DNA sequence: AGCCATGCACCG
DNA sequence: CGGTGCATGGCT
């Protein structure tokens, strides 16, 4: 059970010893629509979107480069939908990420802050 | 009160 | 007629 403790935590250990700190921000338990490959977009809970993501004013959103746990760079569009005077935040461009990581509903995606610099990183965990 | 999972209208 | 962009409604 070499990987006991989880893939993410092992990678975090590697990153901590060889790279700047990788601080967990929040997790998203993927819903059926998050994991739907035809949609290719996931909802970011408003609380976390407005706490941890860049401020976004235009509805079309902004492109973000996010590293995964293998240092592969992914480009996602962070935007919002107007919703009853509020906002629903989404990350678009998730189709290939879902496919490559073989994610399904019930799996978890974790967002990290890479220090210094404050860029974001992303990890995945299958249902346990 | 209002988020957010998902339905769905309508735009191209 | 497929997806975008938003609306709806279950749920807390």
Alpha carbon gyration radius: 15 Å
Strand percentage lies at 35-45%
Residue windows where pLDDT falls under 50 for at least 5 positions = 1-6
Count the beta strands.
Answer: 7
Overall body shape: globular
How are the strands of the largest sheet arranged? 1-6-7-3-4-5-2
Structural class of the secondary elements? alpha+beta
- Largest sheet at a glance? 7 strands, mixed
Mean pLDDT: 89
Helix content: 10-25%
- Counting DSSP H or I runs of 4 or more residues, the number of helices is 3
Order of helices and strands: HEEHEEEHEE
N-to-C terminal Cα separation, in Å?
A: 15 Å
Description:
This protein is an alpha+beta fold. It has helices at residues 7-18, 46-52, 95-101; strands spanning 22-29, 41-44, 62-68, 73-83, 86-92, 108-114, 119-125. It has a seven-stranded mixed β-sheet. Strand 3 (62-68) and strand 4 (73-83) form a beta hairpin. The longest helix is centred in the N-terminal third of the chain and has 12 residues, at 7-18. The chain starts with 6 loop residues before the first helix and ends with a strand. The protein binds a DNA duplex (12 and 12 nucleotides) through strand 4 and strand 5. It is found in: Nucleus. This is TF-B3 domain-containing protein.
